[in-house]
Amino acid sequence: MRKMIRVANPEPFVEREDDDMIICRCEEITKGEIRRAVYDGMRTTNEVKRYLRSGMGLCQGQTCQRLVQGIIASELKVRPSELGMIQGRAPVRPVEIRTFSKNVTDVKED
């Protein structure tokens, strides 16, 4: 896979001085990791989200989404609005099985 990526991006990835800056505090993702994801072929906000888990922490992207978009847009040389917003999902929490059993009527097996 990396070999195919290198064909698509013949120039080497160049690190920057501020690449160690934390952008997504919930998942501890740095600016450099986001830049590297774009270099590796991620082209949308959702692709970077799935690749790195940015925006999947406690805040669900409320804190970092615009920052992530800005970094991706800067790397791709496009406007942030062209990238689309992160597709949100409801937070998932474990549910005890007895919660479901309260809603089920007794069924007798034959």
Automatic annotation (TrEMBL):
CDD domains, sorted: GlpA-like_Fer2_BFD-like (cd19946)
Residue ranges constituting the BFD-like [2Fe-2S]-binding domain according to the UniProt record: 22-73
Pfam families: Fer2_BFD
Name of this chain's protein: [2Fe-2S]-binding domain protein
InterPro entries from the UniProt entry: BFD-like_2Fe2S-bd_dom, BFD-like_2Fe2S-bd_dom_sf, G3P_Oxidase/Oxidoreductase
PANTHER family in the record: GLYCEROL 3-PHOSPHATE OXIDASE (PTHR42720:SF1), GLYCEROL-3-PHOSPHATE DEHYDROGENASE (PTHR42720)
